[in-house]
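Predicting holo structure, zinc ion bound.
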Amino acid sequence: MPSSHRPRAGHRALLLCALACPGIGIGSAHAALDVLACEPEWRALAETLGGERVRARSATNAFQDPHHIEARPSLIVKARDADIVFCTGAELEVGWLPLLLEKSGNRRIQVGQPGHFLAASEVERLEVPVSADRSQGDVHADGNPHVHLDPHRLLKIAAAFSERLQAIDPEHTEHYRRRLDAFSSEWVAAIDAWEAKAEPLRGTRAIVHHRNWSYLLDWLQVDVAGDLEPRPGIPPTSGHLADLLQDTRERPSDIILVANYQDPKGARWLAERSDIPLLELPFTVGGSEDADNLRGLYDAILSILLDGA
Ligand SMILES: [Zn+2]
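Done. C-alpha cells:
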C-alpha cells in the first residue's frame, strides 16, 4: 500500500474542527469515507464493512446491465466526491469507468491509488481466455468478471476491501476489523447453510442467457449446458436459439436462467419450445424485494433455483 494517500483537505479540516468549530456538526456522517460502488453488491458490502464510517452509493442499480452504462454528469459529480471507488474490474466497467475517472478529476480514485479497488483483482477468475479476443464483441475478454455470486470469493473480497478501508482510514482500524470479523463469521455460517440446502441442485444442468451465473453455478456444481448469447454480450440469434433447442432435445437441461435486468425474449422462446422452466432471478442487491442485502440476495436466488429445478 503506497503511503501517499492522506485524508483530503476537507476531511482534515473537519477533524481539526471537531471540537473547536461551532456550527459544523462533526457527527460520524461528516467524517465518513465516501464510497462510490460501481454495482449494488459492492455498495452493500462497503456498508456492511464500514458501518457508520462509510457513506456508500452505487453508480448502477439492480435493473441495469453493468456492462453498458453511461458516464452521466450526475455520476461524474459522485465520482468527484468519492474517497474510494469499489468496482468489479476485469473489464466489466471498461465502457464507462475510465471516462468517469478521467472526468471526475479526482486523484484519489485513479488506477493505482488506494482509492481504486477492484473486486475481481482479488480472486481467481473463471473463463479466462487463452488470448483475449474482443474483435467479435466479447465482453468477457479478460475472464468472467461476475464474481460476486460465489460466497467464498466474496469473503476474500470482503477481507481485501476491509484492509483497504483500514489503510485509508487507519485511525479506525479496530472498527473495520471488528466489522469484518462479525461479517465473516456470519457469512461462513450462511455458506454452510446454503451448501446444505442446495445439495439437490448438484449435477443439474442450466442454460444461461449470459455468463453472469458462472461463479454461482460453479459453486453449486450445476453444469452450464448452453448460453443463449452466442458470445458474452452478443444477443441471441434465431440460428443460435434453434441450435440450442436441438441440443436440449438430444440432452435435456433442467432450468434456463435469466437475470431480471436482461431481455428474456430468447429465453422465453426456448422455454416454450423445450418445456424447460425459465427462472428470472435477481442478480444483485435490490433486484427483488427479498434481495435487499447480500444474504437476502443469496437466499432469494437459492429459493428460486430450488423451486424451479
Ligand atoms: Zn458479463
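Residues 173-197 form the longest helix (25 residues).
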